[in-house]
C-alpha cells in the first residue's frame, strides 16, 4: 500500500491529529504526478509514465515548476539556454567578435546574419514558453502549442532567406523569386498551424512531415543554384556540407518525435531523461548551430569573392 493511501486510511478511521497533519503535508509536497493521475486533456504520451506537473491553473505555478525537476525540464532548458545564447550573439557579440570584417561588409550582411539569429532565438524561446506554460490548462496549452509551431515556421523562414541571400548574392532576381516563394509557403503553413485540427493528438506524424516538407523546400533553390553555378559552385556558395548535416539532424529529430522513439519500446524508462521530445530538442539545437556555420561560411565566401581572396586563405585566417 502506498504511503498516501495509508495516510488516507488512517485519516478516515479517525486516528489522532498527527496523521491529519502528516496527510496535509504529504499532499502539499506531492509535486509530480503519474500519467493516470492527469486530467484527460493532459494525457498525451502514454509511454511517459511519471514526472508530470499536473494542471496548475496558475501562471506563477507554471513558472515555479521551472525549479522542480520534471519530465519537461530537459525540454525547457535545452531550448532556454540555447535561446539566451543566440540572443547574446545577436545583441552585440556577433557584430563585434564573430563576424569577420571585410572592406566590402555592409549593413545588410550584419542584418541578414542577425535576422537568422533572431529566428533561432524566437523559435527556441517560443518552445521554452510552450513547455513551461502548457501545464496551465487546456486552452493555454492549445494556445502555446500554436506559438511553438509558429516559432518553427519563423526559424525555417529565417534559415531559408539567410542562405538565399548569400547563395544568390550576385543574382538578386533568384534571391527575390525564392524569397517570395518561401514567404508564400510560410504563410500557407501559418494558416494550417493556426487551425485547431492541426493540433489534434492523431496528427503528430502529419505535423512532423509537414515541417520536414517546408524545410525541404530549400532543395529547389539549391537545385536552381546547381544549374546556374555548377555543383562545386553551389557547394561553396551555400556551404552544402553543413546544410546536408543540418537536414539530417532536422529530419532525424522530426522522425524521432513523430514515432516516439525510444519510449515506445521501453515505456517509463525515459520519463526524465532521453525521451523522444528531448532528443528532438537537442537535434534542433545542433541543426540550428550547423545553419549558423553555413551562413557564416557563405558570408566568408561572398566577401572572399568580392575582395579577390582565396577561400582557403580566409578559412586559415578565421
Ligand atoms: Zn518541444
UniProtKB/TrEMBL annotation:
Report the InterPro entries cross-referenced here.
Answer: AdipoR/HlyIII-related (IPR004254)
State where the protein is found.
Membrane
Q: Name one GO molecular function term.
A: signaling receptor activity
List cellular component terms (GO): membrane
Q: Does the keyword Transmembrane helix apply?
A: yes
The entry marks the following residues as binding Zn(2+), namely: 131, 277, 281
Primary place of residence? membrane
Protein's UniProt name: Minc metabolism membrane protein
Organism name = Zygosaccharomyces mellis
The uppermost taxa in this organism's lineage are: Eukaryota, Fungi, Dikarya, Ascomycota, Saccharomycotina
